Amino acid sequence: QIAEVLAESAGDSSGAFDAMARAIEALPSVQASWHRLAEFAHGSGRIEDLARVYERVGRGQTGEISVDLLMTAARICAEELTDLPRAVDLYAEVVRWNPRNLEAIEAIEAGYRGLGQTERLAAVLVQKAGLLTDVDDCVRALYLAGELEEQLGCLERAVMAYEKVLEIDEGDVRALDALIRLFRSLRRWEYVVHACQRKAEVTCDAEV
Question: In this predicted structure, what is the pLDDT of residue 12?
Fold first, then answer.
């Protein structure tokens, strides 16, 4: 009520923001209060403070309310404050709470792309692939992860990505070719032979 009085009588959006923030910290579950807080923040140019309130209160909560608040803080950081590293950290915090939060994982993926952090992107793509329900999307994510790991010289991790493709489709010739190439680079001749045999079996089956 104090916040509303300040906003309506004095036109003091900044004072209203402070009053509403205090009220929210005492009772964070009231959604309408968060909407008003955002309005006061935009009216007074206090977007940074808005993000801080979401972060602080979100970390003090548990379960879905914590996830919702931290996700909102992350979106504010990414979209309004153009602070991608901070946004990625917040999304990562959400994923630590809930490793199956696909929205947060995809936001981290977008963040790493924007920051050019290729070395971290590949691991996120593998994590994302484990949550996707569409087989083609899953395979695409794993291929991209494998290709990135190869570019980075992380051949062992590239092998793991392509092997995950074969777990989905054991007849994927492209994945088998990638494994043959990688095993040759790693000088694992037994694995080269085994992968070549698998490819031959797949090719013969396709011709029958």
Answer: 67
